[in-house]
Amino acid sequence: MATLDSKVPSGPLADKWTKHKNEINLVNPANKRNIDIIVVGTGLAGGAAAATLAELGYNVKTFCYQDSPRRAHSIAAQGGINAAKNYQGDGDSPYRLFYDTIKGGDYRSREANVYRLAEESVNIIDQCVAQGVPFAREYGGLLDNRSFGGVLVSRTFYAKGQTGQQLLLGCYAAMNRQINRGKIRPYNRHEMLDLVLVDGKARGIIARDLVTGEIERHSAHAVVLASGGYGNVFYLSTNAMGSNVTAAWRAHRRGAYFANPCFTQIHPTCIPVSGDHQSKLTLMSESLRNDGRIWVPKRKEDAEAIRAGKLKPTQLAEEDRDYYLERRYPAFGNLVPRDVASRAAKERCDAGYGVNKTGEAVYLDFAAAIERYGKEKAYTSGIKDPDKETITKLGKEIIAAKYGNLFQMYEKIVDDNPYDTPMMIYPAVHYTMGGLWVDYNLQTTIPGCYCAGEANFSDHGANRLGASALMQGLADGYFVLPYTIGDYLSDDIRTGPIPTDSEAFDKAEADVRSRLERLLNANGTKSVDYYHKKLGKIMWNKCGMSRNAQGLEEAIEEIAALRKEFYENVRVPGSMDETNPELEKAGRVADFLELGELFAKDALHRNESCGGHFREEYQTPEGEALRDDENFKFVSAWEYKGEPKDAVLHKEDLVFENIELKTRSYK
Asked: Where is the active site (predicted)?
């Protein structure tokens, strides 16, 4: 079994990135003008990479399936972005951010990459402030911070509950500057459908114009994939409905190894499922866990009364409530990592203490925070003996200033006022830690094919800490990739333009057309959504918050059978040469049907529990994840060999020289 070379530089951890930047090859500014780069995906990672590469002088083409980069799913990130600035003076440092991230990922990530991320985090904030991102500020005018799960410091910078939107607008402005200079050529409403290899190197893509249906060839000296995660393999997730795995999966089929597909994050604070009519779920930011307390009734009869509508949560006395995270994890309380909080919620609901009609919800209550903030505001306003009404009014104003848009969103969706009644939340699929395997330079196993942001596997191990996705995307795009890609492109300064009339492009386009025609010619009776929902139920029930060997074996068989039925009985109306959203969906679901089987295979192979991968057979007596460092301290990187069942496993052994491996504890 092959061992992968991560190309991690030698030397002390804190010096690796600086040493690497000093030693890698550079491209002369005059030569950059002769080099083309394709960037697929224009969220934070892709947009930051495109803007920076164009600023450096490269010729960049960007591709996104949305009508504007402003609609990338990065815009949905709410709570904040981590950076080890230590503005609060509470003991933070790049090393502590590095440590928290490794520990939060349950010791399944690469030390060197994570330390680099922590190092660059401090630069991201300066970059974004310079772009005009309106981060929240405290009374003295300095940037404010709040806490997120899995840490004991405040390092999360935020812009109310719309941090992703503000960061993306800053990134988009940087892109627009380069578009106006002619250094970026944007191809919006285009979807990458294949990667083109010439002499073993990534030299372009085949894309479909989603407006006209035209199949197009685009060449470049390197291709950057920044197309996000694959959470929609579960159908119901917090991802945008269009989020998909196609770009990464097409690269996988061309030779890029897919790493840790089973490492998927379940977010604990989502609005619960309300019925079969739903097509996506809505996230309530983890930042709410700073002030919201999570609880269920202590007695089952109270939970049953609430579910039956006979009892309101506000009628339950404090002593009759079980603040189970505070009870089980006193050191971190409601701010334990996402995987820990999610499993704890599932355990309480499975035991019969759930509080909505389906029994799959817990409360997120702000009453204590409203009272605390209200008293503080009253005292600082000179009201020395405030009554309850005044305290409540002032407290709600403080909460509204911190989280107002999130509360509005909740009330719009649920038709319940969260200032007066506790929010109901339940875990849901959110982020994917797995993705294309990349080395220290963010290059996949295909030379010239790079991968950034959520689409790669590199920084989060088996569980991502909150507010780290924006950090990774911007670090990759602004500060890592622009350095490392030059080392590869320094060999291309005399290559000249890559022609698109070659045999490699002919074959790739023929493969794309054949695949689309197969979907259009099935002439079945079931819609694409019918199969996507069926896949999602298999994934959630057997590969979701907990897994076991029997369920995973069944999932592998069921997904393979579903894929066979899909190609025989799916109905895709319309044609290839027109606007055809059903054809777009069909191609994406076809890829999900392959990924889902590999996901289950990876989960079945990993006989341990770690982070978001919870195998029921491997847990402590207290129900916590039980790792097996002796046998599974590696990255699983799968090589495509046709059917997912034939995928070949390659291992990258994880070496921990700076952190002691130990069982995670948040107690």
From this structure: 338 (proton acceptor)
- CATH class belonging to 269-427: alpha beta
Q: Which residues are designated catalytic?
A: 338
341 backbone dihedrals φ, ψ, rounded to 5°: -65, -40
Is residue 182 within 8 A of residue 60, CB to CB? The reply is no
| pTM score | 0.96
Burial class (CB in 10 A: 0-12, 13-18, 19+), 532: buried
**Are 252 and 436 within 8 A, CB to CB?**
yes
| Domain ranges in the chain with CATH number 3.90.700.10 | 269-427
**Where, residue-wise, is CATH 1.20.58.100 in the chain?**
503-633
| pLDDT digit string, tens, across residues 120-132 | 999 999 999 999 9
Topology given in CATH for the domain delimited by 503-633: Methane Monooxygenase Hydroxylase; Chain G, domain 1 (1.20.58)
The structure tokens listed for 318 are 């404090």
- How far is 477 from 320, CA to CA, in rounded Å? 49
How many whole angstroms separate alpha carbon 621 and alpha carbon 623? 5
In this predicted model, what pLDDT tens digit does every residue of 309-332 receive, in sequence order? 999 999 999 999 999 999 999 999
pLDDT of 274: 84
For 416-445, the pLDDT digits (tens) are 999 999 999 999 999 999 999 999 999 999
